Amino acid sequence: MLQELNEIKRIRKKHGLNQKELADLANVSQSLIAKIEANKIEPSFSNAKKIFQALEELREKEELKAKQLMNKKVVFAQSTDKIKNVIQTMKKKGISQMPVMNKNNICGLLTEGIILKGITKSPERINSLKVEEIMEDSPPIISIKTGMKTILELLKDNQIVLVTEKGDVKGIISKSDLLGKIE
Q: Side by side, which strands form the sheet with 141-143?
C-alpha cells in the first residue's frame, strides 16, 4: 500500500488538481493529503479508500468512451444472404467480420474464420450456403457511454462489439479499431 500512497501526488498532478481540490473530492482534509504526500503519515484504511475512490472517479471521467472509439460505418449481413455474396462484400469493403441481422434484429456474427470453417465442412455447398447456417452468436452490444476499460475486457473474448444508443446501432468497435485509437 505504501507504493500506492506514493502515487497519490503523481496522479493528483496528472489530473491538474492541487491538494485542496483532491481533499475536497475525497472528503478529507488538505493537511492529510499534504502529510501523506510528504510520507509523514500513513492514512487510515477508510481515508486511503476515499482518496483512491476520488482518483478513480477522475480517471473514469477522462476515459475514452465507445462513442469516441467506434467506427460509424457498420456493414451487416442478412441471415438469409448467401455466403458467396457476403465474401464479395467483405472483400470489397475491406472488412473481416460482419454482424448478422434478421428482421432488424441482431442475431449473429460472421467472421472470415467462421466462413472458412463453414466452407471446410461443406465445400460442395459453397454456392448455396447461407449465413444463418454457419453464423455464430451475436457480438456484445454496449452503450455509446461505455468506457474503454470495459471495451478492452469485452474484446479479449470477442472479435467486435456493437455500439448502440437507445436500441439503434450507431457503430462497431473491432480489435483493430481500438488499437488504431491508442496513441
A: 141-143, 160-165, 168-174
CATH number of 66-181: 3.10.580.10
How many Å apart are CA 135 and CA 93, to the nearest integer? 19
Contact 102, 83 (CB under 8 A): no
For 111, which DSSP code?
Answer: E
Cell 441481422 belongs to 101
- Full-model pTM: 0.66
Tell me the average pLDDT across 85-113: 93
Q: Which residues contact 30 (CB under 8 A, 6 or more apart)?
A: 19, 20, 23
d(CA 183, CA 179): 9
Q: What is the CATH number of domain 2-62?
A: 1.10.260.40
Residue 96 CA to residue 109 CA, distance in Å, equals 11
